[in-house]
Design brief:
Strand content of chain A: 5-15%
Largest sheet of chain A: 3 strands, antiparallel
Oligomer: homodimer
Helix content of chain A: 40-55%
Number of strands of chain A: 3
Number of helices of chain A: 6
Shape of chain A: globular
Largest interface: A-B, 19 and 19 residues
Strand order of the largest sheet of chain A: 1-3-2
Distance between the termini of chain A: 36 Å
Chain lengths: 100, 100
C-alpha cells in the first residue's frame, strides 16, 4: 500500500485549516483525536458510510490536521498537534478549548 | 431599505464561523475590520466585483462575524468582536493573532 500524502508544515494555510474545520463530522474527528494519541478510522467514523469518511479524512490530511499511516490493513490517525502549534501558536488550543 | 439580518449570538456555530474564514477574501475582510472600528464595502472590496463581494459579506453576516447597517446609500460594516468574544472566549484573538 502506498503511504498517504501529508503536506509539509510550511505549506499549510489558514484557509484550508478553516475549510477542514467547517464540517461538524471533521470537527468532531479533530476533537476526538485531540483527546487521544491515535485512533483507527473505524474508531472515528461513528457508523458513517466509509466513502464519505474517506473524503473527510482526505480533507483533514490535506489541511495538515491529521496524519494517517498504515498498520497492516488498518489506518491509524493522529492529530499533527505539535506541528500545528509550531505553525500557528495558540490557535489549536483556542479552537479545541471552545465548547462543542 | 430593509435592515440586514444578523444571527443572535447564541445561534452562532463554529462550523459556520470556520466556513466564513475558509476564503482568503473573507479572512482578509475580517483582519481589516479587526484593525478598525467600521468600514464601508468599497473600502473593503479591494476592487473586486460587487456581486462576489455581496456574497462574501452575506456569508460573514450569516456566520455572525460582521454586522452591516445602512447609512444613506452606503453600507457600514463592523466586526462583532465583543459578541464573538462572549461566545468563544480567546478564539478570535488566536485567529487574528496568526501570521497572514
Amino acid at each position: 500500500m502506498r503511504p498517504f500524502k501529508h503536506p509539509a508544515v510550511e505549506d499549510l494555510t489558514l484557509e484550508r485549516l478553516f475549510h477542514a474545520l467547517s464540517d461538524p463530522v471533521r470537527l468532531d474527528i479533530v476533537r476526538t483525536l485531540a483527546a487521544t494519541t491515535a485512533a483507527t478510522c473505524s474508531e472515528l467514523d461513528g457508523g458513517r458510510p466509509k466513502s464519505s469518511m474517506s473524503h473527510h479524512f482526505r480533507v483533514l490530511r490535506d489541511a495538515g490536521l491529521v496524519c494517517t499511516h498504515h498498520a497492516g490493513t488498518t489506518h491509524i490517525n493522529s492529530l499533527r498537534r505539535a506541528e500545528l502549534d509550531t505553525r500557528w501558536p495558540g490557535l489549536m488550543a483556542a479552537i479545541l478549548g471552545t465548547p462543542r
